Amino acid sequence: MTHPTQRQSAAATADASAPGITGNQFPPPASSRRGLVFLLVLAMVGAGAAQMSAALLTLTLKATELDAATATTTISISSAVAGVLTLLALPLVGALSDRSRSRWGRRRPFLLLAALAFSVGGVLLVAAGTVPLFVLAHLVITFGFVTANVSVIALLTDQLPEDGRGPATALLSMGTPLGALFGMAVAVPFGDNLVPLVGIPTALAVLSLLALALKVRDLRHPERRPRSTAAALLGIFWVNPIRHSAFAWVFTSRMLVFSGVAALNGYQAIYMLQRLHLKPSSLGTAILMTVMLNAGITMLVAPLIGRISDRLGVRKPFILAAAVILGLGLVLASTASNLPMYLVACTVVGLGQGVYFAVELVLATQILPDKTNPAKDLGILKIADNLPVTIVSALAPVLLAIGATSAGPNFSALFLAGAMAAVAGGFAILFVRGAR
C-alpha cells in the first residue's frame, strides 16, 4: 500500500510541537492498501461482534439468569460502571499508543492486549455467578473493545493518506454493525446457551485482532519519547474547546446522536421481554432480525452516500439528515406495540445510521488537533460514542419511571428523549468550521 509522504511540512512541524509523539513519518508499508483495509475492517467486525453480542443479548441473558427481578437494575449499574471505564480508557489507551516505543510498533501491542481482554472477559461472563463478577466481565470486555477501536482507527490514520480514507472509513464505520449481525446470527441455533453465544463472537474478535497484529507493518517509532509531566498526563484527557472549536462541536454532535442510539441499544432486549412479551429463548432471533435490518440498510446506504458526499465535497448536510432520520426511527420505536411495528422502526433507524456512518468519521478525521499523534485525539472523540452509555444509564431509571404502570416501565419516554438528543446532535454539526 502507499503511505503519506515523508516530507515535513510546516503544518506537520507545528503539530509535532504538541505533547506526545512527534514527526511520526514511517516508510511506506509493504502490504497493499486493499489488504490493510480488509484486515482493519475484519478486526473491527470481530471487536463489534464480541461487544455488541454482549450489549444486545448475552449481558441481558446473564443478568436475568442471576436474578430476573433485578435484571434491569443490574444492567444499568454495570453499564454505568463500564461507561466510566470507557471515558478513562479511550484517551489513555490512545495516548499510550501514540507514545509507545515498543520494538513491536505503536499499535500492535494494543491489538494483542485487546485480544487478551476479549478472551478473559468472555470466560468471566460465562462463569459469573454473582453480580460483582458479572460487572467485572462487562468491564474487561469493554476494555477490549475500547483498545481495539482506538488501535484500528489509529492505524487507519497512520497508514492511509487523508485524501484516500473515504472508502476505507465508510467500510470501517460498518464494522460494528456487521459485527453485531454476526454475533446475533450465531445466536439463533443456541437459544439462551451462553457458552456458544459468548464463545463464537469472542473467538472472531481474538482471531481477527491477532491476524491484523501479525500482518500489519507497524514500525517502531524512531524518536525518543518525551519525558512525562503532570501537565502532559492531564493533557491526555483534554482538548482545548476554544482553540479547537471544530473538534468540540464534532464531539458534542457525536455525543448527542449516540445518546439516541444508546437509548435504543441499551434497553432493547429488556423492552422486547417486558413490552413485546417475548420469551428469553426467542430473544436472540428477534434481536437478529433487528440487527439484520440495521446492518443491511447500512451496507446498502453507506457506500452510496459516501460516494455522493465525496463527489459533492460536503459532509454536514448528510450528518444533519442522518440525525433527523434516526430521531424519526426512535419516535416510531416509542409507539411500537408489537414486533412488526418495532422492526419498521429499526429499519428507519438503520437508514439514519447508514447515512451517518458514511460521512461522519471522514469529517472527524479532518479536524483532529494533532494529526501526527491521532490516537489520543481519536480516543477523546470516541468518548462521545460511549459517554451516552453512562448518561443514558443514569437518566433511564427516571425516564422509565415517568407514568410507569403495572404493565411495566415507560419505554416511550426513554426513546422520545433519545430522539430529541439525536436531532439536536444533527444541528450541532452545523457549527463546525473548517469542514463542509
TrEMBL record:
It is a multi-pass membrane protein. One of its GO terms (molecular function) is transmembrane transporter activity. PROSITE patterns: MFS (PS50850). The keyword S-adenosyl-L-methionine does not apply. Keywords: Membrane, Transmembrane, Transmembrane helix. Residues 9-18 have a biased composition (Low complexity). It comes from the Bacteria. Residues 1-27 are annotated as: Disordered. The chain crosses the membrane at residues 36-57, 77-97, 109-128, 134-156, 168-188, 194-214, 246-267, 287-306, 318-336, 342-365, 386-405, 411-432. GO terms for cellular component: plasma membrane. Residues 39-436 form the Major facilitator superfamily (MFS) profile domain. It is found in: Cell membrane. The keyword rRNA-binding does not apply. Pfam families: MFS_1. This is MFS transporter. It comes from Glutamicibacter halophytocola.
